[in-house]
Design brief:
Blueprint: H1 2-10, H2 15-21, E1 36-40, E2 55-58, E3 61-65, E4 71-75, E5 86-89, E6 94-97, E7 103-104, E8 121-127, E9 130-134
Antiparallel strand pairs: 1-9, 2-3, 3-4, 4-8, 5-6, 6-7, 8-9
This protein binds FE2/S2 (inorganic) cluster.
Length: 137
């Protein structure tokens, strides 16, 4: 209950304050705002998602088809210096920031110094030809 009160307070402060509360557990990145996207995979705008390693950016969300064929999603905003340069790296099977090279696991855990604050990732559910992208609860 006390921790909940702290997080409620921290929600009113910059993200770095809340990240400090989870010191040593950098892969926990609280959702900043609700995400609720639904895309139609048959839409030509998302043709890149037909191939493993392909990705698109929709409303500041990077949606990718990973090397193992799963659909994944993360914010396009890097936690290092908030540049909107997150991509999916097919070569590393990881989230990669083109800004200064931050790397993150597909679950959002930072794997180098620039990525140490973790990356916000989203839940992706496939329903036929549609993908539903939302926050993890
Ligand atoms: S802004 Fe992404 S690594 Fe610096």
């Amino acid at each position: 209950m006390f921790l909940g009160q702290i997080c409620l307070f921290a929600a009113l402060k910059p993200l770095s304050v809340c990240a400090h509360l989870f010191e040593g557990n950098y892969d926990l990145v609280p959702a900043a705002e609700p995400i609720n996207l639904r895309i139609n995979l048959t839409d030509p705008a998302y043709a890149k998602l037909q191939k493993k390693g392909g990705f698109v950016v929709v409303e500041e969300v990077v949606i990718a088809k990973s090397n193992d064929g799963n659909f994944i999603a993360a914010t396009v905003v890097c936690s290092h210096m908030q540049q909107k340069k997150i991509t999916y790296s097919k070569d590393q099977n990881a989230w990669l920031c083109k800004g200064h090279g931050a790397t993150y696991t597909l679950q959002g855990k930072g794997t180098n110094e620039h990525g140490k604050n973790g990356l916000r990732v989203y839940k992706v559910v496939q329903e036929g030809d549609f993908l539903q992208i939302s926050n993890f609860n």
